User: Fold these one by one.
Assistant:
Number 1:
Amino acid sequence: MTPAGLHRGNGNAPGAPGGPDPDSPGADGPGQEAAGPERSDPDRAPATDEDPFLARRLAMVRDLRATGPRDPDVLDAMARVPRERFVPPELVRYAYDDCALGIGHGQTISQPYIVARMTELLELPALRRADPSRRPRTLDVGTGSGYQAAVLADLGADVISIERDAGLSELAEERLGSLGFGDRVRCVVGDGTEGWPDGAPYDGIVVGAAAPEIPDPLVAQLAENGRLVIPIGPREYQALTVVTRSGRRIEQRTYDPCVFVPLVGRHGFPG
């Protein structure tokens, strides 16, 4: 059972193998609608021949807006990226449920709430608003299906996405390329706890697996005022944690409780 109030990221979904997580809650507590221009009403957006999932995608965004994530740019990206393309064919009907889904290789795609929340905590849209010509450099640790990388790329970021499973990385690279993100996302294979020094420094680093403590190499690869978003805690449960770097000063804040699979590597959990 997922403890009450926890949000499920790339966690092992209980129940039928690879199926939806019956214990995974949505975000708890009502929230305020995101500020900004009026968004499309998902109840008035029927499926079309061109995009049969449009209505469900917009309904997902409506639910996200009501339960927590408020950045309109992040929500717009979630409305554009086709989540159904990142799940196995037999699970497409669950693509817009707010739960983690199995993607094979013992991994899952995080629930939409967690993807939106972690992306929001990176604060990439603020960088773009300050300098529209700037493409924030971002490291995505734990490629998985490639969905998180796609959302980051849709927001205008240049993304390096690192995955320790070469098979998953190859599949994600093909999927991202077919969706038009190939020029904005570079998929690499390696130990995510070590980061990817060749692409540093990064304006944002997002980690899709839980670490017992903050990996020093990831902090070292942050740009000035860069942000690292990572679940920190024991294997059973964690808290979303944001680390910011300003000169030699490192600040750390904790946010939502969550459950992720362990981040395996030199600076994470043992394999």
Number 2:
Amino acid sequence: MRLNTNLEKNFSWLAFPGLIRAIVLIQCAVFALVTIRPEAASFFTVSPEGLAQGEYWRLLSWVFYPFVAPDDGAFRFLNVILLLIIMKISFLISDSLEHAWGETRTSFYVYGSWLCQSAILAGIALMGIPTAGLDTQIFYLSLFFAFATLYPDYEFALFFVLPIKVWILAVLSAVMLLLGGLRFPPLLLIYAFCFLPYLLWAVPRLRRYSKNRSMISARRLKFQSHTQGQKSSHLHCCAICQRNEQSHPDLEFRVSSDDQEYCSDHLDELGKPRA
């Protein structure tokens, strides 16, 4: 908590309010640009040739390539609709993260995710390996995972009809990444580094949540057992014979003048205890 306070106090000048919104809006502009001039898409990829020529700005520009690639065929209109949907969801994630974390922490989370993925892209490109698959989809997933961790019960309308909680979508996305990593194990290390900012924040949070949940469950069981024990105890008990309404339901019980409770067998006609 103190680290977060110091971060917001000392580095608030690095905060970019609405950073995620700004990135998405630039992606929409790039979508329009690439639709008009398809050759412009090459400026938003990290390539070995580009880095060899000193085009290090590619390590920053890749994040501005749209999540939905422009299409000049029959699916162009569908891609535009999908882009608008993603923009709306991204705005929701942006506002939600800034509401939960504040502008400074949200900005640093985006900076960290951006930097980690850029480092991975640079390393892969310098080794001459294609960087396909490590694009803005991974960047969006790092934001989506943070949103799902903070608001797990938020619901999206899948196919505009079926309501589904966001944590389920996050788990399915993580499973797909894991399956891809099992087919090619080095991907697991690559994904781990790309999601490093999320893991550094989420793993301790999830551990605390699991610990607190276990403590709450233990307290609930203790309370329930205590309540059941109280329910099983008797309400009336004779001060002489110790019989109660559970062991002898046919008996009647009265409180005598000495403030003690007696059964009908040990009370006389005047309501006094018998010797």
Number 3:
Amino acid sequence: MNGTIRSKLLAASVLAAIVTTPLLAEQSSSSSETQPVVVELFTSEGCSSCPPADRVAIDLQNDLGSDLIILSEHVDYWNYLGWADPYSAPQFTSRQHDYARKLGQQSVYTPEAIVDGTFGMVGSERGNLKSAIDRASRMPKVRVSISSSNAADDASTKELGIRAVAPSGSAGTNAQLFVAVTENNLKSNVRSGENGGSVLEHTGVVRYLHNVGEAVRLEDNKPISLNAEVRLDPRWKKQDLRIVAFFQDVSTRAIRGANQIKAN
């Protein structure tokens, strides 16, 4: 499906910035040899073709567990069809258009899955998507680990320590660190539009996505340490939240490495 872009305000509930103080870990992720693959699903509750893709995302997340990070990014260009997607934001529409330019696509559509910022395909085609995930999992990746502690003066704020080590062959790559908050186990009673009367289920819904500071230069086997701050909206279900960090190539948009931790 194709459509025109409509703007919509997104309330900022997460702050991210580079700081220099060390952090004590309350939770942490390990940077093992196996690093997860990131699948960005561009979807919409106003799109009748999207529920099957949302179901595929849920099934793959259940099957692959920590080997897969789902980022469900709800676009806003179908909101005019009679249902305003409560998870949609112009930020995600803009991100999809950026991918279209980089991947040589003439237009955007839903549902679209982008695997590690490199492979684009119809998000409901499970076989093709699984093959792309398998292929991406064999690529050398930046080893990313995340540590988390509560801020001293605000229990809703998480202070993050993000450490990354680039594999051999990475020298000279400029990468941007992004921090995201996702929420699983979301349901919507859609009352109108193409999916009117349906109950839609989602996983990995991106509640916020933010770049942290300036791009960093990756060097072979050289560690990078960055700190960030994440404020969690109390309306989000804390037990279903994940904090995601990933490094994205500034030039190609390929995601070089990622990891996630539980927010609670």
